[in-house]
UniProtKB/TrEMBL annotation:
The lineage of its organism: Bacteria, Pseudomonadati, Pseudomonadota, Gammaproteobacteria, Lysobacterales. It holds the Pfam family IF-2B. One of its GO terms (molecular function) is S-methyl-5-thioribose-1-phosphate isomerase activity. Pathway: Amino-acid biosynthesis; L-methionine biosynthesis via salvage pathway; L-methionine from S-methyl-5-thio-alpha-D-ribose 1-phosphate: step 1/6. The record marks 151 as: Transition state stabilizer. One of its GO terms (biological process) is L-methionine salvage from methylthioadenosine. This is Methylthioribose-1-phosphate isomerase. Belongs to the EIF-2B alpha/beta/delta subunits family. MtnA subfamily. Its EC number is 5.3.1.23. InterPro entries: IF-2B-related, IF-M1Pi, IF_2B-like_C, Initiation_fac_2B_a/b/d, M1Pi_N, NagB/RpiA_transferase-like. The keyword Amino-acid biosynthesis applies. It comes from Dyella soli. The active site is at residue 231. Catalyzes the interconversion of methylthioribose-1-phosphate (MTR-1-P) into methylthioribulose-1-phosphate (MTRu-1-P). Also catalyzes the interconversion of 5-deoxyribose 1-phosphate and 5-deoxyribulose 1-phosphate. Part of a bifunctional DHAP-shunt salvage pathway for SAM by-products. Keywords: Amino-acid biosynthesis, Isomerase, Methionine biosynthesis.
Amino acid sequence: MTASPATSHDTIRAVQWQGDHLRLLDQRLLPREERWIDCRNAGEVTQAIRDLAVRGAPAIGIAAAWGVVLAAQQGAELDQALAQLRAARPTAVNLMWALDRMKGRIAAGADVVALEREAQAIQDEDLAANRHMGELGAALIVPGSGVMTHCNTGSLATAGYGTALGVIRAGVSAGRIEQVFAGETRPWQQGARLTMWELVRDGIPARLIADSAASHLMRSGVVQWVIVGADRIAANGDTANKIGTYQLAIAARHHGVKFMVVAPSSTVDMATANGDDIEIELRDAAELLSVAGQRTVVDGADAWNPVFDVTPAELIDAIVTERGVIERPNAKAMQAMFGH
Ligand code: MRU
């Protein structure tokens, strides 16, 4: 069902439709264990999204679309399934975008087979977009460059190949990128646990850095681009992404390092004027108070755990989508590419 990998730098498919259930590679357990979980109804898909068994903006949209198919197969109340899935996480607009697409097909009278076709199209289009963005983004990088990335934007976070990690895959394949650094991405460690797993598995040489080493790395002159994904891009180009992205953009500008956002057009939200209007997910303080399930902070301590932040458009050098590249994004350029 899922498209096969195109290159040796692209071997992972973490969201797999099985005809009557959805199989997900459980991202909570990587890299220590590669365990698959089977979701058999929309409630189980909702839970998997909320608990981060599946995560990354495009992947949660794709999983949610399959959740709607499961609900339709079982004759469940579709409005209820749509509402439940929509409420699973607030920041990544791909979730709402995919559900709106499914809702549109339901409103047009689609049967189960047609809904299955729509979910598969959402998944296939994402993979195609990633491959195209990989080429577009890699073309911006001068051969011999070093890059750093944040969070996980790879095959695990998408239908396959990845957004920012797709650009890195393409840039490495084309010989443009010589060094890759991945920030560990506290507190959930998407960079350390997931990005490094993908890169090692696909044979891409990379080094992990502590999040707090980023400015020091940029000052050394070794990296020319910071390349990240997005959870929502507002109409003026302001971009919500994993917490810590904003400080990387500030540090990049200070050091003359370029900053690239890579995301499919399903991440663009022209209905949100600017980043101030993007809801930032707050997760349980417990995620910050423990490491690998072990409490590391004194009992009685509290924590504040916003899991996304907003990078203002003026700190972004390029937004790469499958529709093309916007350099120095602003509302006018966004409107020209994404306005109707
Ligand atoms: O909380 P997560 O792991 O779902 O956050 C993921 C990110 O912030 C990614 O950078 C973003 O979704 C882009 S994934 C292609």
